[in-house]
Amino acid sequence: FSKTLLRQGVRSLQSPKDLLAAFIGSFSWTILALIIVMAGAMYLFYWRQKRYYVEHLVLLMHWHSGALLVLTLMLIWNYFLPLGAYWGFIIMGVFVFLWFTMKRFYQQNWFWTTLKWFWFSFFYLIGFTVLFVIGLLVVFTFF
Fold first, then answer.
1. Are 56 and 46 in contact (CB under 8 A)?
2. Chain-centroid distance, C-alpha 47
3. Beta strands, E only, 73-114
4. Which end of the chain has fewer CB atoms at under 10 Å, N or C?
5. What is the CA radius of gyration of the chain?
6. Is the Cβ–Cβ distance between 45 and 116 less than 8 Å?
7. From CA 77, how far away is CA 74, in angstroms rounded?
8. Handedness of CA 95, 100, 104, 110 (dihedral sign)
9. Is 51 helix (H, G, I), strand (E, B) or coil?
10. What's the rounded Cα separation, in Å, for the pair 9 and 5?
């Protein structure tokens, strides 16, 4: 393990651009794994509605595609006019959109939707962090 770690460390120092390109290439797999895990969480949150797991999966795939589209447009905007501190508002806007999406799709009252949205967002951030670190480790190990 130490030998592999040393070899990969030297390799990443010699070509950091290749390491970054490998990670960006694997980031889509990290997002896909996150969607699959979080669809399971959504399934548990709404188990009384007797919905299939696939329904939650499709909902989260649509939400992620919209979120990634907004973030891509904001990255383009940021290239010409820097957004600075507004990135936090943009990320929060994406999660507020999820709140309205959950309200419309699951048709529960605002209290239960807000409660489930809060816990889902909390678990989402934890899941994203864990899968992001795992993705980094996998890419670094096999780079």
1. yes
2. 23
3. none
4. N
5. 18
6. yes
7. 5
8. positive
9. coil
10. 6
Per-residue confidence (pLDDT) for residue 106, from 0 to 100: 96
For the whole model, what pTM was predicted? 0.82
Task: Over range 21-34, report the average pLDDT.
Answer: 89
Burial of 98 (0-12, 13-18, 19+ CB in 10 A): buried
The answer to whether residue 143 scores a pLDDT higher than 80 is: no
Residue with tokens 């919209």: 66
CB-CB neighbours of 66 under 10 Å = 14
Whole-number Å distance between alpha carbons of 39 and 79: 33
The reported pLDDT for the residue numbered 97 is: 95
* pLDDT score of 132 more than 80: yes
Average the pLDDT over each of 21-35, 38-52, 106-120 and give the range with the smallest value: 21-35
Q: Report residue 120 as tokens.
A: 């889902």
Residue 38 CB: number of other CB atoms within 10 A? 21
Instruction: Compute the distance between CA of residue 99 and CA of residue 71 in angstroms, rounded to an integer.
Output: 18
Mean pLDDT over 19-30 rounds to 85
Rounded-to-integer distance, Cα 1 and Cα 4, Å: 5
Split at pLDDT 50, 70, 90, the class of 32 is very high
